[in-house]
């Protein structure tokens, strides 16, 4: 792992890091590009974290009617992992839009990542983790030494396009309802204040001029 990851995990300074390297507590090798890569096992051992971190699967769909697709994602990831001789330690899943990160399964996964418990997360497509903020999630996971493995290289299926459409429509609907609610509250306040009737018509969507 890189030095910034070591510093974050051990909560030490660069001076202390080099002391660990010189004493042999942390093995290090230099890459052709000049960067130093520190031994994962040594770092986790010093941090009191078990080296056998978990390999997990994360799967997600947007609606209940896509439950079969959710199961397919899980099975495909498990088959992919097992084919590499790796065991699956845990499975996280959600039935919720990928537009939001506020998902029960995702938050449980995130907490495990931030506790340095996860070695790798296997997903079918990158938008299973997040639609609009995948790069942010990827960076965060990387900072905690967690690798994201995407088992499918393309994401062109009709079902995924339909899911994206439904996610967008759900977001638009949610935004519209919030705007409608705000207009109702504003109208109520103006009524209580006995303001100009023409302004009330405007809030109600009527088109009379306010000259």
3D architecture notes:
The chain has helices spanning 3-10, 14-23, 40-47, 67-83, 104-114, 134-143, 158-193, 197-203; strands at residues 28-30, 36-38, 54-61, 90-95, 118-123, 147-150. With 211 residues, it is α/β, with parallel strands linked by helices. The chain has three domains: 3-47; 54-150, Resolvase, N-terminal catalytic domain (Rossmann fold, 3-Layer(aba) Sandwich); 158-203, no CATH class. The strands form two sheets. A four-stranded parallel beta sheet has the order 4-3-5-6, sandwiched between helices. The protein is extended, with a radius of gyration of 25 Å. The N and C termini lie far apart (67 Å).
CATH class of the largest domain: Alpha Beta
* Termini separation: 67 Å
CATH architecture of the largest domain: 3-Layer(aba) Sandwich
- Helicity, as a percent range: 40-55%
Number of domains: 3
Q: Indicate the structural class.
A: alpha/beta
User: CATH topology of the largest domain, anyone?
Assistant: Rossmann fold
Number of strands: 6
Low-confidence stretches: 154-158
Counting H and I runs of at least 4 residues, what is the number of helices? 8
What is the makeup of the main sheet? 4 strands, parallel
Order of helices and strands: HHEEHEHEHEHEHH
Keywords: DNA integration, DNA recombination, DNA-binding, Plasmid
Active site: 62 (o-(5'-phospho-dna)-serine intermediate)
Pfam families: Resolvase
Domain Resolvase/invertase-type recombinase catalytic: 54-201
């Amino acid at each position: 792992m890189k030095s910034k990851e070591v510093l974050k995990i051990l909560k030490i300074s660069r001076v202390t890091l080099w002391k660990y390297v010189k004493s042999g507590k942390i093995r290090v090798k230099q890459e052709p590009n000049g960067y130093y890569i520190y031994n994962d096992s040594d770092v986790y051992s010093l941090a009191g974290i078990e080296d056998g971190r978990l390999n997990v699967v994360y799967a997600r769909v947007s609606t209940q009617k896509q439950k079969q697709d959710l199961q397919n994602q899980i099975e495909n990831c498990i088959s992919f992992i097992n084919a590499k001789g790796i065991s699956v330690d845990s499975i996280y899943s959600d039935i919720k839009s990928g537009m939001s990160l506020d998902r029960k399964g995702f938050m449980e996964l995130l907490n495990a990542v931030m506790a340095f418990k996860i070695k790798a997360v296997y997903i079918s497509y990158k938008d299973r983790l997040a639609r609009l903020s995948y790069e942010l999630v990827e960076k965060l996971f990387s900072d905690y030494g967690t690798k994201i493995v995407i088992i499918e290289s393309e994401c062109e299926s009709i079902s995924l396009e339909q899911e994206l459409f439904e996610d967008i429509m759900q977001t638009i609907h949610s935004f519209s309802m919030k705007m409608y609610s705000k207009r109702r509250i504003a109208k109520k306040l103006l009524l209580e204040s006995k303001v100009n009737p023409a302004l009330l018509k405007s809030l109600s969507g009527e088109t009379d001029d306010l000259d």
